[in-house]
Amino acid sequence: MEDQAVCCYLHPDRETGIRCTRCERPICPECMVSASVGFQCPECVREGNASARRVRPRTVAGGSVARDPHLVTKILIGLNLAVFLAVKAFGNQVVTDLGLYGLCSKYASQCIGVAAGPDQWYRLVSAVFLHEQVAHIAFNMLALWWVGAPLEGLLGRTRYFALYMLSGLGGSALVLLLAPSSLTLGASGAIFGLFGATAVFVRRMRYDMRPVLILLALNLFFTFTWSNISWQGHIGGLVAGSLIAVGMAYAPQERRALVQWGTCAAVFVVTLVVTWIGVTQITG
């Protein structure tokens, strides 16, 4: 009795003695794809590649690895520069429209300032992108690039953007609470949040803490010794950014996203409470 010839499942006219190591279907030399052990058929190779693509690489904090790991930092720098150019082009009107005023101040027969009502609360965010002096924006944007770009690579775009914005908002809220009578502007609060987050992740990854601590100490020294610097904004951003970074760096693996975004939500709620207390203190 003769054995029946085995033919390639893709080419029935070709006899073969080779089978796919995954599905065991017969394959001819033309269909064989070399694998680590034996050969595989084209369909199994495609399925394996699709599975590999579905497993996306992650950053240290669990974010998606982007093709350009510094894109958000570049966009933030671009926004700050665009607002700065608008200030130079249109003058004090832009500062008046975007600056953080706490008290209700009369301007062009209108009451402006966060205390004027919820429609003015946008100033808590808009002031973070506002600069008047060349030295101010130059220093802040250099710091944003040096500190922010590596941090964005660690966190991923979404987590990094949340950290930046919540740090800036935290700085604005503390200004409103402790120094509502002054005009405040600049990205320093958000950048101090990045300083704090960098320190947390350096500690988490067991790197040498001395460089980042020296950098942070120098910036705090300038904060409290130089004139016309809002220490309230710097400290508010530093505290907010550090707390968010602790939640992102030390979240347990099995509930990482829940803990990380829960921490962001908690900091946001606390910021709103501080803002409400500040407004109540002013209007009361």
Automatic annotation (TrEMBL):
Record GO cellular component, one term: membrane
Transmembrane regions: 71-91, 128-148, 160-179, 185-202, 209-227, 233-251, 258-279
Keyword annotations of the record: Hydrolase, Membrane, Protease, Transmembrane, Transmembrane helix
Superkingdom of this protein's organism: Bacteria
Compartments, record wording: Membrane
Coiled coil stretches, renumbered: none
Domain named Peptidase S54 rhomboid: residues: 119-248
Similarity comment text for this entry: Belongs to the peptidase S54 family.
The protein's name in its UniProt record: Rhomboid family intramembrane serine protease
Native species: Actinacidiphila oryziradicis
